[in-house]
Amino acid sequence: MKKKKNSIWMFFASVKLALFVLFILAAASIIGTIVPQIGTFVPQDSILEHYKQFYGAILNGLGLHSAQATTVITKISDLLSFDDMYSSWWFNGLLGLLSINLIVCSIERLPDVWRLVVMDNHQTKISRLQSMRNTLELTSSDPAPQTTAALQQRLAAIGWPASQSSRDDGHLLFSQKTPWSRLGVYVVHLSILVIFAGAAVGFFYGQKGGINLPETLSSDKVYQYGSGDEIDLGFTIKCNWFTMTRYPNGAPKEYQSELVIIDNDKEVLTKVIEVNHPLSYKGWTFYQSSYESHKKYIISVANQTTDVQELFLAPIREPVRWQDEKLLFAITDLIPTTTPMIYQYKLMVADGKGGQQLLILDDNKQGTLIRPDGNAYDFQVKEFFSTGLQVAKDPGVWIVYIGCGLMLAGLGVAFFMSHRRLWLFISEKEGKTTILIAGTANKNKPGFEQEFAKINEALTQAQSIEVQK
Amino acid sequence: MLFTATYIIYSVAVILYLVYFSSQNKQVRLAARRILTSAGLCHLGLLILRYVEAGHTPLTTHHDTVSFFALSMTGAFLAFRWRYKVKNFGTFVSVVILALMTVALFSSRNLYPLPPALQSSWLLVHASIAILANGFLALGFCGGVMYLIQDHELKKKRFTLFYHRLPSLESLDQLTQHCLSIGLPLLTLGIITGSLWAKQAWGSYWHWDPKETWSLITWFLYAGLLHQRLAIGWRGKRSAIMSVIGFLAVLFTLWGVNFLLPGVHTYVR
User: Fold this and answer.
1) Is A347 helix (H, G, I), strand (E, B) or coil?
2) How confident is the model at residue A469 (pLDDT cuts 50, 70, 90)?
3) DSSP readout, A231-293?
4) What is the tally of structural domains in chain B?
5) Domain-by-domain residue ranges, chain A?
6) Average pLDDT over residues B53-82
7) Partner residue opposite A37 with nearest CB, options B181, B208, B230
8) CATH numeric code, A119-178+418-467
9) Strands A252-263 and A266-274
């Protein structure tokens, strides 16, 4: 049942279309790397500014300054959404065209390739064997049946197990390796479609958002990127604490947040996340992505004898009162350390009736103070942050990964394996046994030539067989 | 110190290859190969020392990246030559290696502590595979350039300096094909490992960040080149031109993106 080959079908099956789409995709992708894109890495306002400057520069370059020209160009770029190009209708249309091309071309070619994979090579005509690129003729002093059996054994010994068939004029031995490797390239084609499918699932069913969660607080919502719409998580996420450490030169070394998942009023999961080590729960994944400083400090105070502990939040130089313990304290100064951006805290402690004491604390390190009344307190000060979390749910990601795996497997097969076939035709002519060896490979022909020579060498080692002069 | 020493050994190898190119004396070629191999080994030692010095995979600065690119080319070439004895390939390859080493020589060798996003074993896997791919694609570029020179000589019908010193067009075509058949899977693996890492570090496997996009552009170009060869039979000159253009995209992914376009890969100094 041959498919009707109309011209539209053939157009979509053509390699020329594939080439065209690949090169156009390459060229189009460049636009998106030059025109600033609406994205998560650059704030929206600066993009718009950049965007204006960009077109301004182009127009100046072209020697056009008129407002009209600017409007026209802006309209074109709006229509083609150059600032959000990779989600534009035409770019995705190109990807769609590539998909159709891949599907149609595979449907068109696969049946023929499949026939080559499963074909009965014992039907091959001897004249075809003779005209192959790699051939060798040998003679044997043994009769044909014995020679055939001996050769079959020898072939098996060197890893080319052969099947035998007999015909009127002689015996044919046939052996082949990795006929299925012809399918490798179609696995690559399929893998691209699988990746696209995974991306589509992510696009339709996935969600991306973020939240700046202040330390000690919790939320059951996150905010969608771009729109800022609320997304209900269906559970609550809490940030116990956030810390950042710095290298001696002041560069950030590590951001860490301790997150707690609270589901149905129960703490179900606690994990310290950092960049490269996210937390996953019910399909959602929380990534450490940034932080925000509030110019406030968390002061933790504990009475050593009673073990009562309290947390206070205060900006610098604002006195804080702990009523129960009758304590009054304030951070009076930040003292720079050898590490840029890391400070020591000067903490003044009093009780409202004099008795002032000074405590110098390292960042986020505990220090003890014994009050004149004999009570000992542990103080600890750290800057108050919000942890910046990126929150994503992408049910398509595993499909994409499977596609990637398929692609690597397909490329491996397509590039490093070839369908190699070997025929030995043994016949008796004028009382002499002649052997015709023929071989083909569909890829890496120079490599096969060497392999063919090695096979022949192994076969001619039998005493009764010699190369025909 | 060791870098300078390595650089000098590479320079000697290039000089010997150039002498061989003009004299076609087999002894000189043997010496050139041995010197290039020593340079490669020295370079490998340098890489290990640099690893110890940095305390992490030393592929985060411009100097280290370009230097490893050169080493990848040396390795790829030395691994290749046994199977493909292409006349005077070494001369072309060694010149490109020295050019890369010269760029590395003039870039700052300061090491920076690793920012949080790079603290992952993906750094080793992703960065080394991606640059190794560049090494093989660079060999393909050399093959393409040799093809175009030879093609030009043949058209001129005035067989001067190059004609007798370059291999046949067919073997150059095969060489290019072979470089790509290793380079493209490595490039693909580089992009995929990058996606896996991006997912883990930034929450999404693809951002259309300029570096990602340019590596995809490079991939499109090489995929196009393969289809041109496999399916249409446009072998020869067009393939050679494409392997040069593809390599320009590789270089833009490496340099253009870092110096011209902002994105998430910009911390690579």
Assistant:
1) strand
2) very low
3) EEEEEEEEEEEEEEEE-TTS-EEEEEEEEEEEETTEEEEEEEEETTB-EEETTEEEEEEEEEE
4) 1
5) 7-110, 119-178+418-467, 204-293+387-408, 295-382
6) 92
7) B208
8) 3.30.310.80
9) antiparallel
Q: How close, in Å, is residue B8 to chain A by CA atoms?
A: 34
Q: Chain A residues with CB inside 8 Å of B195's CB? A: 400, 404
The answer as to whether B269 is a domain residue is: no
Domain range enclosing B100: 2-260
Q: Considering the entire predicted model, what is its pTM?
A: 0.90
What's the mean pLDDT when you consider all of chain A?
Answer: 88
CA gap A228, B245 in Å, rounded: 42
Asked if residue B265 is part of any domain, the answer here is no
pLDDT in tens, B233-263: 666 888 999 999 999 999 999 988 887 776 5
Exposure class string for A176-187: b at 16+ Cβ within 10 A, else e:
beebebbbbbbb
DSSP E strand boundaries for A323-419? 327-336, 343-350, 357-361, 367-370, 376-393
> What pLDDT, on a 0 to 100 scale, did the predictor assign at position A466?
67
Position B268 in a domain: no
Of A15, A16, A390, the CB nearest to B202: A390
Q: State ipTM.
A: 0.93
Best of A85, A97, A247, A276 to substitute, by most chain B Cβ atoms within 10 angstroms, is A276
- Helices B2-23 & B89-105 angle (0-180, nearest 10): 150
Q: CB-based contacts of B155: which residues, under 8 Å, 6+ apart? A: none
B122: in domain: yes
